C-alpha cells in the first residue's frame, strides 16, 4: 500500500536532487539522498527518482555511493534501460585504488540482477578473483554464484570453475569458504563441489582458521567424503576431536553430524562420540538464548533414542525454571520422561506434580501427560498422583487427567479398577470436548465396573440437543451402545431416546449415519452387535517406558543438525484431540503382522448367512492369504518420517516423469526405479477419503491428495519410507512415491449399455434380491477372471532402488486396497 502523501514527497525530493545549489554542497546532497532512502523504507514508491539517483552515484564519497547503490539495486528491475547508465560508473569503480570501493562496486554490480548486464559483469568478476585485496576476492567469488543463479540455464566457463577450485587454497579463510559456497551453487546439477582426499585434508587443516559459520559450512560439505582406509578414517576423526567439544554449539553439532556420517559402519565409535557430547549439550541447555536451549533439548531427545542413559545422572539439569517459556518447559518434561528410572522416579514425579498446577494451562496439561507416560512403568505411584489431582476440581486439570487415565488404561489394563473408582463425580467438572470424549469412552468400555455409569450417560443424553461438539455426540452414541450390551435394563430407555434424536432430529450427517448404523446393527441381534463393538479394551503390546531397546544411530543420524528434530513431536504423542485410543495410530511395529489387522475388519464386515459375503470371501481368499503370508515373511517396516510436503512430492514426481513417459511401464535409473502395477479392485474408487486415509495410515502410508469418491478419473497420491534391516546395527531406507489411477472406462461402458437395454426394477421378494445379487457378483467374478474388469493402475517411483523393499510395499498396498474394496463391494 503506497504511503499517504507520497506523490508530493517525491516531487519535493526531485526538485532538491536537481537543484544545483544542493549538488554543489556535498553534505546537503548526501542528506537529500538519505531522505530518499528514508522515504523509500517507509513504503513510498520513489522509482521516479531513478535518473536523478543515477547521476548521484558519480562521486568520491563512499557513504553517498553506498546510499545510491541501495536505491539502484532496489529499483533496477523496474528501470532496466536506465540501469545501463550505471554500468560505466561501476566498472570504473572496479579499478579504483581503494579496495573498499572496488568490493562495493563488484557487490552492487551483481546485485542489479539484470540478465542484460551479464556480459558487462563477467570481466570485472574475473579480474576480481585475482585482486590483491581479500575483501575484493570474497565478493568476486560470491558474484559468480549470483551470476549463475541469475541465469541457471547457462553454463559457467570451465576456466572459472577451475579458478574457484584453485582458490580453495587462498590464504584468506573467508575466501576459501566462499569458494565452497559458490562451487556448491554452480555445480548443483552435478551433485555439488567434488571432494577428494587432498581437498578434504586441506579443509580439515584450515578448519581452525575459519569463523563459526565457516566451520559449519566446511563440516557439512565434508560429509560427502568417504575415507579410503580405516587409518585415514581415524586420522580424520583425530583432526575433528577438538571441534567435537567446541564451545560453539553450531560447530559442535556439525562435527557430530560428520562423525556419525563417517562412522556409520562403526557403531561403537558413534556411541563413544555421543558420550563425549554430553558436556557440550548440557552447556547448550543452559544457554542464555531460548532458541539455543530449545534446539539443544530437541537434539538431546534424538540422542536418547540410541543412548537412553546418556543424561541419566544429570536429570536435575532438565528441571523447569519459573521464568522459562512454555515450549521449553514442555520439551524439558519430555526429556525427563525419557530419563526416569528406579532411583529417580520419586523425585521426578514430585517435580512433575508441581508443574501440574502451573498458571499456563498447556504446561499443566503437558505435565499431567508426562506423569501418564511414566505410569506405563510405575502405574501405582502415578495413579495416586492423578487421583489426587482430580480433587482440585479445576476444569483443565480434570480434563487432562481423564484423558491421561484413558490412554494409560489402554496400555496398562491392570489399572482399570483404580481408574474406574477415581472417575466417579468427575463429570461435574469437565467442560471441554476432549475431556468429555475421554470420559465417555471409559464409561462405555468399563461401564459394568462404574456404578453410576448409566446415570452419568443420562445427563449427557438429556443435554445432547445443546451439545456443540460432533466428537462428543459420536462418542456418546458408541458409549451408550456399549453400556447397553452389559447393562441393558438400565440403559434401554435412554438408548431409545438417543437414537430417536440422532436419527430424526440431528442435522449433522455423520452423527445421523452412525446412529442408523447402530440401529440396524441392533436389528441383527445382540451377539452380532457385541462382536462389532466389544473389541479390545487395551493394547499392552505397545510396551512400557522402561527397558525399550535402543535404536541404531543410523536411523536418525541423517536428521541430526537439521530442522527435523525441531518438528518432531513426542516419541508417542498423546494429544487429547485424537479421540478414542482405538482410533489412535501409533508407530508401526516392525514385527506386527499386517494380515491380523486387515483380515479382522474384512471378516467382520460380512454376515455369516449372506450369500454375497460368502462369494466375496471366496473370491479374494487366495489374494488375502498370499498377501498375508508375503507380508509376514517380509522383514520390512514402513515409516512416515521424514515428512514430505506436497511441493517436494510434486518436484520429485515431475522431474522423473518425462523419462518414465518415454520409456514405458518400468524404467530403471541409477538412483531410482519406476514400476506400474494393475490391482483388480475398482470398488476402491467408491471409498470415502477418510476411510482410505485411515487405512493407509494404519500401515504408515501417507496420502497427500485424492479426488472425491464417485469421481472419474479417480486419483490418489501417496508416499512412504521403507526400512529394511541389513544387519544387527544397520538398516536401509528408501522413499516410495505412488499414484493410484482408476479411469472407470469399463464402468462407463456398462452404464451406457444398461441405459440402452433398460433398467430392472428393484421391487420384489427378498429371495429374488439375493438371487440377483448373487448372479451379479458371480458375473463380476467371471469378468475378472477373463480380464474384462478394469483395475486400479498403480504407478510407483522408488529412490534409491531396492527391489525387495518395493515388492514388500506392493504386497502391503495390494492387501489394503483389496480389504477396502471388499467392504464397498
Automatic annotation (TrEMBL):
<comment type="similarity">
    <text>Belongs to the adaptor complexes large subunit family.</text>
</comment>
<dbReference type="InterPro" id="IPR002553">
    <property type="entry name" value="Clathrin/coatomer_adapt-like_N"/>
</dbReference>
<dbReference type="GO" id="GO:0006886">
    <property type="term" value="P:intracellular protein transport"/>
</dbReference>
<dbReference type="GO" id="GO:0016192">
    <property type="term" value="P:vesicle-mediated transport"/>
</dbReference>
<dbReference type="GO" id="GO:0030131">
    <property type="term" value="C:clathrin adaptor complex"/>
</dbReference>
<protein>
    <submittedName>
        <fullName>AP-4 complex subunit beta-1</fullName>
    </submittedName>
</protein>
<dbReference type="InterPro" id="IPR011989">
    <property type="entry name" value="ARM-like"/>
</dbReference>
<dbReference type="InterPro" id="IPR015151">
    <property type="entry name" value="B-adaptin_app_sub_C"/>
</dbReference>
<dbReference type="GO" id="GO:0012505">
    <property type="term" value="C:endomembrane system"/>
</dbReference>
<keyword id="KW-0653">Protein transport</keyword>
<dbReference type="InterPro" id="IPR026739">
    <property type="entry name" value="AP_beta"/>
</dbReference>
<dbReference type="InterPro" id="IPR016024">
    <property type="entry name" value="ARM-type_fold"/>
</dbReference>
<dbReference type="InterPro" id="IPR012295">
    <property type="entry name" value="TBP_dom_sf"/>
</dbReference>
<keyword id="KW-0472">Membrane</keyword>
<dbReference type="Pfam" id="PF09066">
    <property type="entry name" value="B2-adapt-app_C"/>
</dbReference>
<feature type="compositionally biased region" description="Basic and acidic residues">
    <location>
        <begin position="781"/>
        <end position="790"/>
    </location>
</feature>
<dbReference type="Pfam" id="PF01602">
    <property type="entry name" value="Adaptin_N"/>
</dbReference>
<feature type="region of interest" description="Disordered">
    <location>
        <begin position="747"/>
        <end position="790"/>
    </location>
</feature>
<feature type="domain" description="Beta-adaptin appendage C-terminal subdomain">
    <location>
        <begin position="636"/>
        <end position="818"/>
    </location>
</feature>
<feature type="compositionally biased region" description="Basic and acidic residues">
    <location>
        <begin position="764"/>
        <end position="774"/>
    </location>
</feature>
<keyword id="KW-0813">Transport</keyword>
